[in-house]
Amino acid sequence: MADEVSVLVEGGKAAAGAQLGSALGPLGVNVGLVVQQINEQTKGFAGMRVPVVIRVDPATRQFTLVVGRPPTAALLLKEIGKETGSGKSKSEVIGDVSLDSVTKIAEAKGADLHGRTAEERINQVIGTCVSMGISVEGQDPRALLKARLAARGPR
Q1: 113: burial class by Cβ within 10 Å (0-12, 13-18, 19+)?
Q2: Helical H runs in the chain?
Q3: What domains can be seen in the chain, in order of their start residue?
Q4: Using the 8-state DSSP alphabet, how is residue 59 labeled?
Q5: Is the pTM of this model over 0.85?
Q6: Which is higher by pLDDT, 76 or 46?
Q7: Residue 115 clears pLDDT 80, i.e. is over it
């Protein structure tokens, strides 16, 4: 059975420091090679924190990487060019995203949100906008979400 190490790294900027070195060193893998491969596979997520699972076969010391997708909040922040969400999401709007951007993020998160329809994934991203103080096409995301749910009708 493989040993697993889960880490959250900044895209393209993993380092063989305390976080990875102390976890991987006892497993006997080449930490430098692991870091290099993590950086190659996460460079498209520069500026965002990305979940990575490193699976190590203790018998052969071979490893495989499973690179996840950044959290929905991180993708939204990248879209609006901000580093943090609003601390007062009910009264302070920090940015605006288009419905096309919401749809793109929902599609990117699709594999992480298994079992959900495209509509449910879009609604989840809009829900994240609510908690972050991000409007959607200039609208309050609460009102947009309510309208989308009403249009869907009872289930």
Answers
A1: middle
A2: 18-24, 31-42, 72-80, 99-108, 118-132, 141-152
A3: 3-67 (3.30.1550.10), 72-152 (1.10.10.250)
A4: T
A5: no
A6: 76
A7: no
